[in-house]
Write a structure and sequence with these properties.
The protein is an alpha/beta fold. It has helices at residues 15-36, 39-57, 85-95, 123-131, 144-156, 190-197, 203-206, 219-225, 242-247, 270-279, 306-312, and strands spanning 62-71, 77-84, 113-117, 136-141, 162-165, 167-168, 173-177, 212-217, 231-236, 256-261, 282-284, 293-297. The chain is built from eleven helices and twelve strands.
Length: 313
């Protein structure tokens, strides 16, 4: 009991403080859900928020049983997810905390192409598709169990996603995936996997599975394959591989208008990533609470002095 409350990087935090943190987060998430949804939808989110935190107090649920929430006030969006800790965490991230929320329309007159790198089970893609109904979304994800859920979420909502089973790396080839029963948290980097699988209390250590080989693609070659000139929005959550992909992105990086990325600071050098993005015409939108950062390519979208305007506002 309570051993799952410890998180990577916690150090020597007293158990009582860990319990208080979990209760505080549960209450905050329920309040956010109450503000966002009608009573019927809120009750469903409240149920699964409670279920998630109960699992962290006692024992995480790793079930593959598929559940569903229909959000009627958002044109009957249907969210399919598995009854496990990882999917429930991502459910609240995308639709309660809304970690990918941003005023994209301020910079983009039209959103035609979205790349969802690390698409997981498709909840982030649903979020983007709801906001940008005419966008063509490319979902890139290496985990087979997640791919099945991607197809389910695409087909249930009648979306026209391009689903690609692969890891994103700096070049085409194959990658070694480090899967585990914590379905959504796989990486292709040995250093990340070694850290997670050798840290006490990490679910990746407790429930790790055998390694497997998966295809890997570069962003540049995917753009060539699908005849894409520009990517309006790129969401990147690739479990530590972002540093290598961005630093070696000479061919594609100039053609991304807005990048929204989760930088995994425990595994990568944030300063190097920020410097590389800056060299390629991006500036960071300041003031976000995380865990995602937004970068605007002012050269790509033809916006002059937007950084000064944003700071002034």
């Amino acid at each position: 009991m309570f051993k799952y409350l410890h998180r990577d990087g916690d150090g020597d935090i007293p158990l009582f403080d860990l319990i208080k943190r979990e209760i505080r987060e549960m209450k905050r998430q329920k309040l956010l859900a109450k503000d966002k949804f009608d009573k019927k939808t809120y009750r469903k989110f409240r149920k699964w928020i409670t279920y998630y935190h109960k699992g962290m107090f006692f024992k995480p649920d790793l079930s593959r049983e598929v559940k569903q929430i229909e959000i009627c006030e958002r044109e009957n969006l249907i969210l399919n997810f598995r009854k496990n800790q990882s999917d429930l965490y991502i459910l609240q991230e995308n639709f309660v905390s809304e970690i990918y929320d941003f005023d994209f329309e301020k910079y983009l007159q039209e959103v035609r192409v979205i790349f969802d790198l690390g698409a997981n089970i498709g909840l982030s893609s649903i979020y983007f598709q709801y906001r940008f109904k005419n966008a063509h979304i490319f979902c890139i994800e290496p985990v087979e169990e997640n791919i099945k859920m991607l197809f389910l979420n695409r087909n249930t909502n009648n979306f026209n996603w391009e689903i690609i089973k692969a890891a994103i790396q700096a070049s085409d080839g194959t990658a070694t995936l480090h899967p585990n029963e914590w379905w959504s948290s796989s990486t292709v980097l040995d250093c990340v996997a070694n850290h997670r699988e050798n840290t006490e209390g990490r679910l990746e250590k407790i429930y790790k599975l055998p390694k497997e080989q998966v295809p890997s693609y570069s962003i540049s070659n995917l753009m060539k394959k699908y005849n894409i000139s520009y990517i309006d929005i790129m969401k990147m959550d690739i479990e530590g591989a972002e540093e290598d992909v961005i630093l070696k992105g000479k061919e594609w990086i100039r053609y991304v208008k807005i990048l929204i990325v989760e930088i995994h600071d425990k595994y990568v050098d944030r300063k190097i990533i920020l410097d590389e993005l800056s060299k390629n015409g991006f500036y960071q939108v300041m003031g976000r609470k995380g865990p995602t950062d937004v970068f605007i390519n002012k050269e790509c979208i033809g916006v002059e002095n937007e950084k000064t305007k944003l700071e002034r506002e």
